[in-house]
Amino acid sequence: MKFAQVIKDKRLEYSMTQSELAEKLFVSNKTISNWETGKTMPDLDNVLYIAKVLHISLDKMLLEDNNMVDHVKRIQEIKATKKMTWVAYLTNFIFFLMFSTQPIFGKLPVPTLIMMLIGALANIWVMIHFLAKTNSLEDKDVNTIKTENYKSVVVTTIIVVIALTIALFLH
Fold first, then answer.
1. C-alpha to C-alpha distance for 151 and 146, rounded to whole angstroms
2. Which of 17, 58, 68, 78 has its CA 20 to 30 Å from the CA of residue 117?
3. Which residues, given as ranges, of the chain have pLDDT below 70?
4. 78, 130, 144, 152, 155 from 141: Cα distances, Å
5. Residue 16 in contact with residue 7, Cβ under 8 Å?
6. Counting Cβ atoms within 10 Å, is residue 26 exposed (0-12), middle (13-18) or buried (19+)?
């Protein structure tokens, strides 16, 4: 049986309205409606809440509907990819700090600056890769993806260029 049908059948078995279930799960009525019609699927946390509130075994919810298992795997992959994107942002920020604090802590040798530049550029490529992967997993509109990626790359590149300019002028 499909996940959407399991939720709807159990809700009706307990004589619950969509509003009552939504209140117990801390989501909107529209969210419940979308789950029951199969338009969207809940994340893993909500699957656990649904199982608890409607007294459904996780086996029945997850294993009987292959789409649900695939959805949960995709959500986990999206979370992991977003974490890696933030690691790339953080690394670029650290590069920026290293470049821009030279007047305070002392100048770095030119070979070190060159290696840091290569690292920063490689890190920008990694960030672009993870942004593209996240967007493809989230099935976003192509124009939205291009705009978001463009903004992120431009901002990160500007920060790295400013940091390098500061570092080179101080040398």
1. 9
2. 78
3. 1, 64-65, 139-150, 152, 156, 160, 163-164, 166-171
4. 16, 17, 5, 17, 22
5. no
6. exposed
Give me 18's structure tokens. Answer: 């969509």
The 10 Å Cβ neighbour count of residue 89 is 17
Buried/exposed code over 30-66 (b: 16+ C-beta within 10 A; e: otherwise):
ebbebbbeeeebbeeeebeebbebbebeeeebbeebe
**Residues near 110 by beta carbon (within 8 Å), at least 6 away in sequence:** 171
Tell me, what amino acid is at 78? Answer: I
Residue 4 contacts residue 42 (beta carbons within 8 Å)? no
Helices (H), 38-101: 44-54, 58, 66-100
How far is 64 from 29, CA to CA, in rounded Å? 25
pLDDT of the residue at 111: 82
The pLDDT score that the predictor gives to residue 28 is 94
Enter the DSSP assignment of 13. H
pTM of structure: 0.51
In this prediction, residue 124 carries a pLDDT of 79
On whether the CB atoms of residues 61 and 46 are closer than 8 A, the answer is no
Tokens of 74: 């995709």
